[in-house]
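Fill in residues.
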């Protein structure tokens, strides 16, 4: 829900993607976001097909989402992993971050 609050429809206008998150740790499970037509829809569970899959301890991803930690740095430190369209990972802050 935190990520949905930061969704930037203007910046996502040209994006069509499904991003899956698989969490471990305190909160384990999967969810996914479907981005299309400058809108985002969140659903529990894994989708049939994802463009990007992020696998992370829940606590690590919450640190990224809230800005407590730098997502690029944590990825380089192998604190979480991602497979698929890495350009989506690189644009997460643009899609779900504050508009500067």
């Amino acid at each position: 829900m935190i990520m949905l609050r930061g969704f930037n429809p203007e910046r996502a206008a040209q994006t069509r993607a499904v991003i899956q998150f698989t969490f471990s740790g305190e909160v384990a499970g999967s969810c996914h976001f479907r981005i299309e037509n400058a809108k985002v829809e969140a659903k529990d569970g894994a989708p049939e097909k994802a463009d990007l899959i992020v696998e992370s301890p829940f606590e690590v991803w919450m640190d990224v989402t809230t800005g407590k930690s730098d997502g690029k740095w944590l990825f380089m430190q192998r604190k979480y992993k991602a497979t698929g369209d890495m350009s989506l990972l690189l644009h997460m802050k643009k899609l779900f971050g504050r508009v500067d």
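The radius of gyration is 13 Å.
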